[in-house]
Amino acid sequence: MALSITDRCVNCYACMDVCPSDAITQGASQFEIDALKCTECAGHFADPQCASICPVEEALLDGLGHVIHPPGSLTGIPPTLRLQDGGSADEWRATP
Amino acid sequence: MELIATSAANEPKASGCSAKGCGSSDDSLAHLPEALRKRVQNHPCFSEKAHHHFARMHVAVAPACNIQCNYCNRKYDCSNESRPGVVSEVLSPDEAVHKVKTVAAAIPQMTVLGIAGPGDPLANPDRTFATFRRLAEEAPDIKLCVSTNGLRLPEFADEMAKYNIEHVTITMNCLDPEIGAKIYPWIYWNNRRIRGVKAAKILIRNQLKGLEMLVERGILVKVNSVMIPGVNDQHLKEVSKLVKEKGAFLHNVMPLIAEAEHGTFYGLTGQRSPSGAELRELQDSCADSMSMMRHCRQCRADAVGMLGEDRGQEFTLDQIEGKEIDYAAAMVKRKQVHDAILEQLDAEHQAAANSDTTTAARGPAILMAVSSSGQGVINQHFGHATEFLIYRVDDTKVEHVGQRKVELYCGGPGDCPEEENRLQGHLNALSDCQAVLSAKIGIGPWQQLEQAGIAPSGEYAYEAIETGLRLFYNDLLAQGKLQPTGELATEASA
User: Fold this and answer.
1) Helices marked H in B221-363 — which ranges?
2) Which of A65, B56, B395, B435 has its CA 20 to 30 A from that of B449?
3) Topology of domain A1-74, per CATH?
4) Model-level pTM?
């Protein structure tokens, strides 16, 4: 199983630096996870490292395509107050 | 080992004058021993005097962060915002080195290169230290500087000392983890995301440990704190006291920036920022125990130029690509420019030390505002000001205590539909000042200032700021126009 990155990514490099599998690279518009290399950090760490440092809500999906950090879970900002900029989250959200 | 910054911090007590500065001095660092004064005299962020003459730049090589602060939005790609954490383009270390050399050649007054983000420099150790390593070798006349949240300071204190980094800023907003939990939702530590009080405890412990380690290594440490009304404002006096005890050199209490359009937690949840007067009062109360920085402009993580100005747009990657820089030649020119400025500053320092103020008449401590576009001179039209420098003046001292941002109200003839509204903003920003000095003031604003009890003057145009303030103060005092301000009077006689 592998995690993946959505277009919410702000290209901050944090995940690339902490990935133990060198699975993350900078793509054309955002960082990308190589599904063949990603181990979800099994055998390395208790939690996937990219998901432990990523500061952006809805930027990471788990192996089933579920959002790992839903709105409000990292910033504490109530979803109703969030700025609606960037791509629409609904396009890719949660289709298991 | 001799603790340089600690012994310096104790100096004022030994010589019997307060940390606010002594004698006729207008510089909160004037009490420093000569060796320390020399170390900060060309650093615009560590010396108020220096910031009128020397410039700084930040290179954005550090995009990753290991903590979340409630005043920060990690989507930082904006060229119209001027505040920390914001940049337009992230640079590789090689690009950064090229940019630094290009700017150093074009702006010889640029003495300091800082890495401040847009994330945390020590959360990007490879990119940060690769940049420093090359600059220490290839541009040895530039001071290197880091601004960090402190989480990984204990780990990197030795490495920082290796690259001749003389100045470090740690942002510390609290000592109490309960307060910290209201400012920092999480940290990334030991490969885990940690939240709440537990996270704040680790962060604060590392900040204090890092501060001690830097001081032990002879590095000058400035502590930045964001003043968040109702969250940490009452607590920052304690922070000031403790970081001084631990050997920090300077404390910079900055106002929270929180607009809804920035998309930050504080901005979107309606947390208010402090007023200019509230900020000054807190800075004054901290000044009893610590030297305070009052001239911070809260610049971007890719700012270029004098404090308060940003020339970053002149040095984008597109514009500097392929430019050949003869750095050896640039260093010769830079040295000439630096020597000339330092000679002037030394002369001013000597003059201040020698000046006799005992003959001055007794007068109250008041606040006065100045519009200046740089060089320490009253050289800006009232209507062109986007900020006013605020000074506390009494019969012996002229002391810079801050600045107030205002909306530009004059865009030239025929562009004043909102003039009255915007002028009200000026009057609010200067409401605790008794005088304002500009190169020129139009008749409309002049009358409104007078009605608001603020004495305007264009008479001291192109004078040195301190000279103009002293002369206008004496003039107003002689005319019996100065009002004693309770709180300021106490401060001055303390």
Assistant:
1) 236-245, 265-268, 276-286, 317-320, 327-354
2) B395
3) Alpha-Beta Plaits (3.30.70)
4) 0.79
